[in-house]
Amino acid sequence: MLNKEEVGITVSKKEDFSEWYTQVVLKAQLADYAPVKGLIVLRPDGYAIWESIRTILDEKLKKTGHRNGFLPILIPESLLGKEKSHFAGFNPEVFWVTHSGDTEIGDRLALRPTSETLAYSLYSKWIQSWRDLPLKINFWNTALRAEIKATKPFLRTSEFLWQEGHTVHATQEEAESEVLAILEIYKKTVEEELAIPVITGKKSNKEKFVGAVYTTTMESIMPDGKALQMGTSHFLGQNFSKPFDVKFLDKNNVENYAWQTSWGVSWRLIGATIMVHGDDKGLVLPPRVAPIQIVIVPIYYSDKDAQRVNQKADEVERLLVSKGLRVHVDRRDELTPGFKYNEWELRGVPLRIEIGPKDLDKQKVTVARRHNRQKSDLPFDKIGSEIGTILQQIQDEMFTAAKKMLDDRTVTLTDYSRFKPELEKGHFIKAPWCGNATCEEKIKEETMADIRVIPFGSENSTGKCIYCGQQGSADVIFGRAY
């Protein structure tokens, strides 16, 4: 049997955040390192979390008229050259296929870092008239980008799971509405399912997606004070439709270039969930996305008690499964209850139900909440009616705690002399900015912080730019990112 030092978290989240994160990923059995540097293997619990996110998003996207498609992994270099300025931003990260067996191929093939060029070369064939619009396709893909220096599971890996949507519209107005609608879907998913609050708005021109007219984003802060981009939605305008000839005949039989959007989130959301909610005991999962929402631990020390305790555990399991909940009964006789408690806390199961002989005598179970480690008694006849409410309370309390962290770590400044000291404390900084890229670049150069988001509604600032002192154009959020 493994001892506690081998299976438990051995560092404090506050004292060594990076090592703590890595240990949680590995020891909570979410992922492991692959034989190739920069790649990870997703284990069943990690994949189950991704499946929950995917299922939730997929349902919302289909309700809004989006359909799923599939794209191949290889893109010919000659095709990528049709939008050189866009692809230049990815070129340093591209993996290239140069041989088929021992034979050198003519046109190099890129392992897809993103799919704009591939999708739009096909869209130009599929779209002929206004009747073909809007075209709204989502792809559940992997992408490959060479991250081999500063890798971190779920946050920076050379291959990652994501979804990327690519839509085509007849009008600018319709395309821009799509951008905001998708961002709102993302926000509701992250806040309601992952219990992580986000700040939504636009990226600066310097930070926007290469090839976009503008990029909208949702940002959050992690417990180590760094910013994490949780998802983006881009208005591409006609920047891709023109080089790729994505055109249509309108109702007056006049040919027009289409208007386009693209958007995506990745398994980075799993990394955010680990960081925001985890503690020194390990993973803490929101009930909505937990692979196992409830673990039942039967407790007995004699054969006489074993039969009746296990019988009750099975009964409770059937009841909860009938409610649509994900339940597991830990029937491993070779392990002590205490060992089981520690293991399930490490793996982040939101709710633990303990059933022993004394509980049977008192017609109740003991319920332990993972997020705050509080225990309470629950009568047998209340299990079916109250467990769902308890899980929702856990979900709500986790969001409230995360929102408090975001609020507490966001400071408003007008004095640049305080900028760097507040960053060192692990804060987001909200401050007026004049809109000049020079000030943005100087701040980045001097502090390693960039503009994470220009929040919606923060435009027309009445303050003075925190760097140059000129009239501000918006109150923006600065932060250091992964």
From TrEMBL:
EC number(s) given by UniProt: 6.1.1.15
Boundaries of every Aminoacyl-transfer RNA synthetases class-II family profile domain copy: 6-286
Entry GO terms, CC: aminoacyl-tRNA synthetase multienzyme complex; cytoplasm
Coiled coil: none
Predominant cellular place of this UniProt entry's protein: cytoplasm
Molecular function (Gene Ontology), one example: ATP binding
One GO process term, biological-process aspect: prolyl-tRNA aminoacylation
Catalyzed reactions: tRNA(Pro) + L-proline + ATP = L-prolyl-tRNA(Pro) + AMP + diphosphate
EC supergroup of this enzyme: ligase
SUPFAM superfamilies: C-terminal domain of ProRS, Class II aaRS ABD-related, Class II aaRS and biotin synthetases
Function: Catalyzes the attachment of proline to tRNA(Pro) in a two-step reaction: proline is first activated by ATP to form Pro-AMP and then transferred to the acceptor end of tRNA(Pro).
Subunit structure: Homodimer.
Family designation: Belongs to the class-II aminoacyl-tRNA synthetase family. ProS type 3 subfamily.
Entry note about domains: Consists of three domains: the N-terminal catalytic domain, the anticodon-binding domain and the C-terminal extension.
Full protein name: Proline--tRNA ligase
Taxonomic lineage: Archaea, Nitrososphaerota, Candidatus Nitrosotenuis
Annotated gene: proS
